[in-house]
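Customer escalation, tier 2.

The customer says the design service returned an amino acid string that "doesn't look like it belongs to this structure." They asked us to rerun it and document both sides in this ticket. The original structure tokens are below, unchanged.
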């Protein structure tokens, strides 16, 4: 059937083509992009994820930087509502950039044969590093973090940067879902051949139904806000298990939440 637009101009044909009887039809090729930035890569190719990550990261970083410049009024005063709009744009940009990070991690950990390094680590040191990185964010809400003292150690085996990533996710969630002027505490423990670190908060808690799905993709602790991608805990548990450990939750409504990362213990001073 011929197609025309609103002005009567011919725009092409629409129809259906059927294979001739008795002639086999080849299977369709994997979906691919023909954009010059991506070449002709199938969606399942790891290189596709790396290229789209790079293609998104640059523009998003520029959007965030520009919005923060406008919001901070570094180039001169503007109307207060315009500054707030720019702040909202910067916040949304950071959220999208975090989603890009999570999607890149997701493709990486779900790749066949993914393995984590076996570094000699100290869970006490990594817990204190996580507190140092997110301490300012906690202070903005008046939240106090009770971290392990500097002389407390918990030797374990796991990939240094991946363990820090998991702890940052747990501590970031605790800050996000904790009420103002509350307490978050981090405790170290060892049970047999397991070294453990627990992040506990005084938030609203997680009921049994939410606990059953909290480690699934795109779950946000039962929340519907834009505080995260819903991939963080899924990725965190996958990373823990890739390091021969695990990530568990213990909680009840109104009693806060306690997330525990366990890894192979290592004897040492």
């Amino acid at each position: 059937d011929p197609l025309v637009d609103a002005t009567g101009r011919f725009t092409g044909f629409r129809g259906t083509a059927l294979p001739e009887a008795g002639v086999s039809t080849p299977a369709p090729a994997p979906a691919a992009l023909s954009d010059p930035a991506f070449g002709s890569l199938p969606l399942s190719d790891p290189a596709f994820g790396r290229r789209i990550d790079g293609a998104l990261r640059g523009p998003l970083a520029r959007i965030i930087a520009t919005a923060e410049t406008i919001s901070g009024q570094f180039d001169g005063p503007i109307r207060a509502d315009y500054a707030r709009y720019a702040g909202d744009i910067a916040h949304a940009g950071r959220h999208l950039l975090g989603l890009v990070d999570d999607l890149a991690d997701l493709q990486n950990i779900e790749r066949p044969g993914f393995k984590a390094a076996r570094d000699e680590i100290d869970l006490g040191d990594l817990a204190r590093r996580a507190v140092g990185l997110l301490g300012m964010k906690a202070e903005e809400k008046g939240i106090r973090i009770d971290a392990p003292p500097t002389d407390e150690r918990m030797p374990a085996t796991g990939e240094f940067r991946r363990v820090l990533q998991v702890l940052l996710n747990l501590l970031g969630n605790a800050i996000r879902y904790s009420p103002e002027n509350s307490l978050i505490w981090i405790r170290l423990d060892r049970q047999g051949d397991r070294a453990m670190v627990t992040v506990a908060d005084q938030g609203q808690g997680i009921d049994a139904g939410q606990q059953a799905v909290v480690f699934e993709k795109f779950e946000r602790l039962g929340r519907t806000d834009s505080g995260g991608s819903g991939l963080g805990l899924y990725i965190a548990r996958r990373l823990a298990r890739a390091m021969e450990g695990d990530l568990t939750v213990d909680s009840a409504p109104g009693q806060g939440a306690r997330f525990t990362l366990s890894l192979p213990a290592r004897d040492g001073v």
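Tier 2 assessment: The sequence is consistent with the input. The chain is about 40% helix and 20% strand. Confidence is low (pLDDT under 50) at residues 30-38. Sent an explanation to the customer and offered a walkthrough call.
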